[in-house]
């Protein structure tokens, strides 16, 4: 383990949109690019890593709007979607030579292992990249909440929330060119402002366990900067980094 790292064990949350094209589905070119970044980070830093994946490329809540589909069933479909993304990411990462394990909150024994906290920590300690699927295993909780939960359970040093923008802004930067990026915000302010890059349940869970969050634009260089302790994106915590 590189002792110079600012964070030795990280939880990386990657949204499902990063796994698909604009039309949805699985885009293995994009998944391969994600895998390449993860492989290079692991090779260059030896950081211990767990990854939580979303499923927005395969299923979203808006698909059931104005339909009689039960919300619980819709969430279960979404959980299965995260397993699909996790298996696709595992395939691409292992093709590059890294050992991985997919751990699911819902039992699918023929495809992946069931999430057991101690076993998952042991995989991480052995240098395996752990990909966490199935959300929390319960309806009504997002994969952001799952990321917050797993980060605390697995004793991670930080939760890295990969986004399509380089942090949190005071207002929508696409609508307002003069919008200023927020470098630091405490948990309570994030909850009160209703920052929509993560849900309030995730923020509240991290606040209760003092789990720092960095919201950043997903790239190899940005993750390397974070691991070196440089300021990237927006830091959410008790006090500035």
UniProtKB/TrEMBL annotation:
UMP binds at residues 75, 136-143. One of its GO terms (cellular component) is cytoplasm. ATP binds at residues 13-16, 56, 60, 164, 169, 172. Its EC number is 2.7.4.22. This is Uridylate kinase. It comes from Candidatus Roizmanbacteria bacterium CG11_big_fil_rev_8_21_14_0_20_35_14. Its main location: cytoplasm. PANTHER family: URIDYLATE KINASE (PTHR42833), URIDYLATE KINASE PUMPKIN, CHLOROPLASTIC (PTHR42833:SF4). Belongs to the UMP kinase family. One of its GO terms (biological process) is UDP biosynthetic process. It comes from the Bacteria. InterPro entries: AceGlu_kinase-like_sf, Asp/Glu/Uridylate_kinase, Uridylate_kinase, Uridylate_kinase_bac. It is found in: Cytoplasm. Homohexamer. Pfam families: AA_kinase. It catalyses: UMP + ATP = UDP + ADP.
């Amino acid at each position: 383990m590189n002792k110079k790292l600012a964070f030795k064990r990280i939880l990386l949350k990657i949204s499902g949109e990063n796994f698909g094209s604009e039309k949805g589905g699985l885009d293995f070119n994009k998944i391969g690019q994600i895998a390449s970044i993860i492989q290079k980070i692991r090779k260059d830093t030896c950081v211990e890593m767990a990854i939580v994946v979303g499923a927005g490329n395969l299923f979203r809540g808006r698909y059931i709007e104005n339909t009689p589909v039960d919300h619980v069933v819709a969430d279960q479909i979404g959980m299965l979607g995260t397993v699909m993304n996790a298996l696709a990411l595992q395939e691409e990462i292992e093709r590059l030579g890294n050992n991985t394990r997919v751990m699911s909150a819902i039992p699918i024994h023929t495809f992946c292992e069931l999430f057991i906290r101690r076993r998952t920590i042991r995989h991480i300690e052995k240098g395996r990249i752990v990909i966490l699927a199935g959300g929390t295993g319960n309806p009504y909780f997002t994969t952001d909440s799952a990321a917050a939960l797993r980060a605390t359970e697995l004793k991670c040093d930080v939760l890295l929330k990969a986004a399509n923008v380089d942090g949190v802004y005071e207002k929508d930067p696409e609508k307002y060119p003069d919008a200023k990026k927020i470098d630091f915000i405490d948990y309570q302010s994030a909850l009160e402002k209703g920052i929509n890059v993560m849900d309030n349940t995730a923020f509240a869970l991290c606040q209760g366990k003092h789990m720092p969050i960095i919201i950043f634009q997903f790239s190899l260089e940005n993750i390397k900067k974070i691991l070196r302790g440089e300021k990237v994106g927006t830091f959410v915590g008790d006090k500035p980094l």
